[in-house]
Amino acid sequence: MHATAVVTIVLAAFIGLVAFFWPFVVAPGRFGTSYAPPLIFGVLLILVLAVVFAQIADGGIDAKALAMLGVLSAVNAALRPLGAGTAGVETVFFVLVLAGRVFGPGFGFTLGCTSLFASALLTGGVGPWMPYQMFGCAFVGMLAGLLPRARGKAEILMLAAYGSASGYLFGFLLNLSFWPFSLDPGSSIAYLPGLPFTEQWHRYLAFDVATSLGWDTGRAVTNFVAILLAGPAALITFRRAARRANFTAPIHFAPPAPPPPPAGSAPGAGADET
Fold this sequence. Notes:
The protein is built from 8 helices and no strands. It has helices at residues 3-21, 30-57, 63-83, 93-103, 105-123, 130-144, 152-182, 197-245. α3 (63-83) crosses α5 (105-123). It starts with a helix and ends in a 29-residue tail after the last helix.
């Protein structure tokens, strides 16, 4: 990727981390409960546009790539109700992992946001949790595009392992969005403003394990199995589409060829002869 796209994606990731990890920096209050989700959603839309425009400017995304983004967003929106989160089963993440792997971190970040936005509109899942879900899926797709090189069975196993880990990562991040407001302050796993970071972190880890480890495990197992079964065929399909669409083909502009000399002329013609 070019420098502009890299800087834009790093900035987007940093803002996403701030949106999740703010409880370790500031205390929750009225702003956090009432105004943070719509503000984060607005910032997220700007970031998605910035990532897309940066990729377009650097040649990493063109009209065909945008069409692919729309198709995969629609596919994920249609797949998500099949799992509906029952027992942690989610059918949306394995496409994010495979598409991010083939098309790159910028595409994966954008696909994570657009997929969750489209599925929320389709299923009526619009609420204060939606921008956090969009950011969480954006991280899943982005990190898939940053995995090391591999081919064959090693690649499938690597993607399956990452898909499993991303199931826990998504739950870990999403729990941060409501942990400060969900428990009685007297609980031993509740958020308490002013505690040292290590104690606050210990409380959150205990909260995450106690409240969502089972659901996250269901998501992790679903991702692992789906990538093992559908991964080889999906990777071949995505890579064939990427080659035909020329996603990363550089554009070169050659200078125009000089006009040919007039007919009958030759080098030295017209010179005085002695």
